[in-house]
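Thread: TetR family transcriptional regulator, structure

OP (GT): Posting the sequence first so everyone is looking at the same thing. Length is 179 residues per the record. Can we get the structure tokens written out before standup tomorrow? I want them in the notebook alongside the other entries.
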Amino acid sequence: MREAALALFAQHGYAAVSMRRIAQEVGVQAGALYNYTPDKQSLLFDLMQGHMDDLLNARSQEPVCTSALARLEAFSRFHIRFHLERPQAVFISYMELRNLTPRNFAVIEDLRRRYEGELETILRDGRDIGAFHVADTKITTLAIIAMLNGVNTWYRSGGRLSLPEVEAIYWDMVRKAVT
């Protein structure tokens, strides 16, 4: 059910997808879905929270680097790899925020702040030791994440560039943006 909802929300948008359509995709009666989720809002929230929990958990499993530059590189490469493996979840996590109830939005926003906060800490630490030159760590954080998220819109496996080549090019752009 979750996979079907994820695919349908990504393809058609949350507002355009009914519980009946999700049930049809899964091959059950619409009423059966309510055994698994109270409503469509809860389903959207669960998908978004699951994505953010997976992101934060995967990030916590990454090796710890010592220098600010190495930490920034590791973050940049991780972000690209993680998100390219989950294009539908990424799309929904950014495009469907507007459809969350205020309470659900606050939870997702808190999870996003935790992830963004890691990057902002890296930038602040680098700035404080003179390794990075950024006027505003928050704006730079948001700009870097937006740039890294852009890879999902155009990258295709088997295309002109390999994933390691894309990571290297993006890392070079991130590095130049802060040094």
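GT: Both are above now. Quick notes for whoever picks this up: Residues 40-178 form a domain with the Tetracycline Repressor; domain 2 fold (CATH 1.10.357.10). DSSP finds ten helices and no strands in the chain.
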